[in-house]
Amino acid sequence: MGVEILVSLLIVIGAAFTCLGSVALLRLRDFYSRLHGPTKATTLGVGSLLIASSIFFSAQGPGLSLHEILVALFLFITAPVGAHLMAKAALHLRVRGQSGLPPDALLDGQGVAQPDPQAAPRPVPRPASRIDADPLRDAD
After folding, report:
1. Which residues contact 64 (CB under 8 A, 6 or more apart)?
2. Contacts with 128 (C-beta within 8 Å, 6 or more apart), sequence order
3. Domains of the chain
4. What is the pLDDT, as a whole number, of residue 31?
């Protein structure tokens, strides 16, 4: 009885997140927003559905059902990487978002803070060596 309730709850949560991601894809205005909504919401929704499937088939069968967990793990790794690559490609192609683009110098890598040649160098903290950190030696 408890397994069915848990599985039902995970299915409802997964369906809600998947539906939310689909609505975000349709309703949001620009490429970056459309990329963000489905990537986050649909990943959680499909992950919840896969976990529900794994729990259900593990409870029904003689052993653990790990196929769904492996698919969910693959999904959680590949979806953010794919979204990141699409966003970087869109920035490279200068796809405009709702709020516009960052300045061209920043997109070309020239807007990154460069060290000032006139400034004095900052001292680099020296890590403690093995001899300096020996508590027995400090006790003497």
Report:
1. 58
2. none
3. 2-98 (1.10.287)
4. 85
